[in-house]
Amino acid sequence: MPADPTPTSTPVFRAQGLTKTYRSGEVEVQALRQVDLEIGRGEFVVLLGASGSGKSTLLNILGGLDVPTAGDVRFGDHMLSGASETELTRYRREHVGFVFQFYNLIPSLTVRENLALVTDIAHDPMPIDQAIDLVGLTPRRDHFPAQLSGGEQQRVAIARAIVKRPDVLLCDEPTGALDYQTGKLVLEVIARINRELGTTAVVITHNAAIAGMADRVIHLGDGRIQKVLRNAHKLQPSELSW
Q1: What domain count does the chain have?
Q2: Would 117 be classed as within a structural domain?
């Protein structure tokens, strides 16, 4: 068992014996192998590991996009393993905000209109303009995605994820398609959401430098947690160098 595997705050996620096996014909791939994990409410966690280490599979299971082959995973008092697709859809809609490497914005809609698609189905969304202001894009709110830079589009994607006031923000390589300076701006937005709204943030990266922002860094390899490190002094995105 890795040292210091648990958070200091009340866990929002609890996973025990989490295993995921993919099969294709005669081929069997073990994506996760008996993972035990807790993530605290309001914590900023970085999942670090090479391609194929299991970090995306873990994030997808935490987000209700995938289900484990074995083991249990809970969100608060809700058991996610064994939940129906309807229950997982409700969980994703009410509790989770996703940010991916690619922005998935609707090109024919403005920034505000892209966010309105989410607020129309959210239970208690924040005002659209507040979400846009949190990511620093108020002057660009009536622009279309094609009129925005890559970093601005990623910030729109973050605003779309947080406008429904999610409990957790799950980010899969959010700076992977961005240059160094633009990536720092995006990380600053994620750090601000975590700090000011108290949103639990879990960020996947293969970039070890980004780990300096986290409360804890969970290293994965071969589908297992290899080690867990707690940061005594979190860095600001502007202090990162990679």
Answers
A1: 1
A2: yes
